């Protein structure tokens, strides 16, 4: 209902179970899937993981009543572009859909706080594996990856690293391809896992 009332967002389909998502995506080809975690049959996290592994997958924005750390991290590591709570005001949900469609990450403020706490106080990730993955990057690509991990926009990275926004976008695209990742959030998590952020 919220999205159908937004003039710049068009709802093209719905699925009531995570198992229905692949067929609905194949039929309707959405830019963004708004995924609930709690669904009968296949849950939204499992559906997100399966969907984001597919070539040409749409962006995923997870919407849930639960902001538990393990849900947030699992969704983001699976390639979700955002994580919102269902009590998010309607206008902010619409804005989040548009941001995720542009490839930007978005998190509810309470989720951001929990994620920061979890990342800074949680168990140490496998730094060796993350470091090995980052070792395949050129110096300039690593500079861009570090800036992405700091939450900088393309324009901010452009100004900081003295390159055009188009060049920054090209570097981010190469990072995603080289590292086998889906979005900027996953770049940031990998940089963190390597102990570089």
Automatic annotation (TrEMBL):
Top-level taxon: Bacteria
Limits of the HTH luxR-type domain: 130-195
Sorted UniProt keywords: DNA-binding, Phosphoprotein, Transcription, Transcription regulation
Domain Response regulatory, chain residue ranges per copy: 1-101
Cross-referenced Pfam families: GerE, Response_reg
4-aspartylphosphate: residues carrying this PTM: 36
PANTHER family: TRANSCRIPTIONAL REGULATORY PROTEIN NARL-RELATED, TWO-COMPONENT RESPONSE REGULATOR
Record's protein name: Response regulator transcription factor
Species whose genome carries this gene: Actinoplanes oblitus
């Amino acid at each position: 209902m919220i999205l159908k009332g937004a003039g710049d967002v068009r709802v093209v389909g719905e699925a009531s179970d995570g198992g229905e998502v692949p067929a609905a995506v194949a039929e309707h080809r959405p830019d963004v899937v708004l995924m609930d975690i709690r669904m009968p049959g296949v849950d939204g996290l499992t559906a997100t993981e399966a969907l984001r592994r597919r070539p040409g997958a749409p962006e995923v924005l997870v919407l849930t009543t639960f902001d538990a750390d393990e849900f947030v991290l699992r969704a983001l590591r699976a390639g979700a572009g955002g994580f919102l709570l269902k009590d998010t005001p309607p206008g902010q949900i619409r804005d989040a859909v548009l941001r995720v469609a542009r490839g930007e990450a978005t998190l509810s403020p309470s989720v951001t706080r929990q994620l920061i706490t979890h990342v800074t106080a949680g168990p140490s990730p496998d730094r060796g594996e993350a470091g090995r993955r980052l070792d395949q990057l050129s110096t300039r690509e690593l500079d861009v990856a570090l800036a992405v991990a700091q939450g900088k926009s393309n324009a901010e990275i452009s100004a900081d690293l003295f390159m055009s926004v188009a060049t920054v976008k090209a570097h981010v695209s190469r990072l995603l391809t080289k590292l086998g990742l889906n979005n900027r959030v996953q770049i940031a998590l990998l940089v963190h896992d390597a102990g570089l952020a």
